[in-house]
Amino acid sequence: NADAALSRVKSQGRNNYQFYHSAINSQASELLSLENSLHYALEREEFIVYYQPQINISTGEIIKMEALLRWQHPKLGLIYPEKFIPLAEETGLIVTIGEWVLKTACAQNKAWQDTLGLPSLSIAVNLSARQFQQSNLVKLVTQILLETQLNPKYLELEITESIAMHNAEFTKAILNEINNMGVYISIDDFGTGYCSFNYLKKFPIHALKIDKSFVRDLTKNSNDAAIITAIIALAHGLNLAVVGEGVETEEQRNLLRILECELMQGYFFSRPVLAEDATKLLRKSKSRRLSASRLVA
Ligand code: C2E
Ligand code: MG
Ligand code: MG
Ligand code: MG
User: Fold this and answer.
1) Cα separation, 161 vs 5, whole angstroms
2) What are the pLDDT digits (tens) for 107-120?
3) Is 193 close to ligand 1, i.e. is its CB under 6 Å away?
4) Is 102 helix (H, G, I), strand (E, B) or coil?
5) Distance between CA 224 and CA 41 in Å, rounded?
6) Angle between the 81-91 and 2-41 helix axes, to the nearest 10 degrees?
7) Whose CA is nearest to atom 8 of ligand 1?
8) Is residue 105 lining ligand 1, measured as CB closer than 6 Å?
9) Which of the listed residues 29, 134, 160, 243 has the most CB atoms within 10 Å of its CB?
10) Interface predicted TM-score (ipTM)
11) Ligand 1 within 6 A of 189 CB?
């Protein structure tokens, strides 16, 4: 009858409510403990920088490595940035973590340049919003470049459109200082944030990285192809380099090449790898270049 049905619904509701509540609680406590261990992760040396190559498609050479952070958690295993960077942002821990990434990546790039004889290899490092708002960012970058002896022109800082557009005057001032040091600046995940063409004109930017969401269905979806075509034309018109991100297949590579996207990054070439594996990739890339030049000579 109706009464029984009603009380069943009510009790279910209560159970659902409890279930829902405990799910939230366990999520909250998971986050809390993650936050807690994030505090110690740096001193416990649990962070690892992975490197993913960027390829100049006309020569096949690796011209740059992008530093991508991972957290080797003692209990939870390898944790990806999407899971802990937002937490690190909220707590402000990203500032010291980001400093460590920058130093590690610059030192690694300098070591590769010197030991592998690759003097013009570059390193790209991602900056988060919070890091960008630090008043000592420019000083910090200067200091790290001095310490690691890396020439500023082989460092590239990647920022997203939302960082760039948030407080545009401030951003412009900082970017100008960074640019004056000789450090390169690229816009990451281009096309997914608010992009204002106005700022592309005003900011000292060197490259656009086409977001991987456009590359994913590039060969199947004519809208994605149209957007990518437009981004590449925009970049070329503004004299910016353009990087296709998230290239996973030969078809994507071929189509991007036809569209005159000269730089590419993605699983098709290599996943992000540990420094020692990146060293092997760089050795191979160099010997390919040497044999290519011998063929020409
Ligand atoms: P991002 O800078 O756009 O980096 C590209 C992401 O795409 C990386 O994810 C990379 O592993 C992934 N990727 C590369 N090639 C492919 C592909 O062919 N297919 C697919 N599906 N994915 C591909 P990851 O390493 O998980 O990093 C995610 C994001 O976390 C980065 O996006 C970046 O915004 C942020 N991040 C990573 N390291 C740092 C860091 O040191 N500091 C800051 N602030 N953010 C970081
Ligand atoms: Mg990036
Ligand atoms: Mg990206
Ligand atoms: Mg991203």
Assistant:
1) 53
2) 999 999 999 999 99
3) no
4) helix
5) 40
6) 80
7) 68
8) no
9) 243
10) 0.98
11) yes
